[in-house]
Amino acid sequence: MSKVFPRLGRRRTFQGAAVGAVALALLAWWLLPLGETPPTGTIVFSTGTKRGVYQEYGQRLRSELDKDMPGLTVKLLSSAGSQENVQRVATGKADFTIAAADAVETYLLGNQPGARDLRGVARLYDDYMQLIVARDSDVHSVADLRHKRVAIGPVDSGVRLIADRILRAADIDPGKDITPLADGIDTGPDRLKAGDIDAFFWSGGLPTKGLSEVARNFAIRFIPMGADLVAKLRGQGDVTRYYRTTSMPESAYPAAQQNVPVPTIAVSNLLITRKDMDPKLTEWLTRTVIKSRDDIGSHVHSAQLVDLRTAIYTDPLALHEGARRYYRSVKP
Fold this sequence. Notes:
Elements: H1 7-31, E1 41-46, H2 53-68, E2 72-77, H3 82-90, E3 96-100, H4 101-109, E4 118-134, E5 149-151, H5 158-169, E6 179-181, H6 188-194, E7 199-204, H7 209-217, E8 220-222, H8 227-233, E9 244-248, H9 254-257, E10 262-274, H10 279-291, H11 293-297, H12 321-329
Parallel strand pairs: 1-2, 1-3, 5-6, 5-7
Antiparallel strand pairs: 3-10, 4-7, 4-8, 4-10, 9-10
C-alpha cells in the first residue's frame, strides 16, 4: 500500500477537514457565551405556584443560566401567576418573569404603574385552559358549573383572569352563580380528591406535573371548551384576541383522557422584562433560553416548543434591545 495519498484523495481529505472545521466553529459559536466576560450581579425571576409549569421552568432556567453566567445570582420568587408576575416586573419587584399574553395586555390597557416600561424577551410556549372534574361528576360543560363549588385560581393569577371570562361567556356570573374558590394547581387537585370542590380551572403548559400526578391515582375528567365558547369569549373585548381554539392532544394526560383529545382554549406565554434592564445581560439570557430548550424540555415538556422562529413575536410588547441584538445575531 502506498504511503502517499493519491492527489484526489488528499484534496477530498483536506476539503472534508475544512468542512469539519467550519462545522465545529459554528457549533462553538452557538454554544459558547457571548462576548468575553459573562454578565454578573443579581436578578430576581418571578415564577408561579408550587407544582405549576412556571415554577419548574424557572428552576430549570436558573440552572442553565448558572452554566453560562456563573457570576450571576438568580433569585426565584414564587407568585400567584401571570397577573402578579406582570405587576412585579413593571414595578421593579422582579426583573424577569413569564406571563400569559392576555394578562400582559390587560395590564397595559389598564395603564397600570410601569406598564409602558415593559418589554418582551421571547415568546415561549402556549398555556392550555383545563377544567377538571371527578370522572363521576355530573358536570359535562361549563354551563353545568352553575351552583357548583369551583376553584378559579388565586386572585392575581392568570387562570382567574381567563376563568372569569370563560364563565361569563357561558352566562355564569363568577360572583353569584357559583361558589368561587381561590385554589390553584398547588391545592386544587387534593381538594377535588377530598370532595371539597366540584371542579377547578387550570391554565398551563402540557402536561402539568401537578395534574399528571393526580391523574395517576384519581379518576378525573376534562370538560371540553369548544369554538362556540371561544366565539362568545372574544366578544368581551380586544384582549380576548389572544385566545384561540385548539385541542389538548390525547397524549397529554393519557390516564384521564382515555385516548381522546379535548377541545379547549390556548394563550401564548411571554418571557418579559423592563426596558431599563441591562442589554448585555438580556442578550445573554435570551441566548440561554433558546440554547437550553432541549435540556429544559426533557424535564418541562412544554419548553420543547420554544422556537427561534417564533420567539421574536412578543405581542403586545416590543422586544427589549438586548433580545433584539441576539435575534439579529442569529438571523440567517
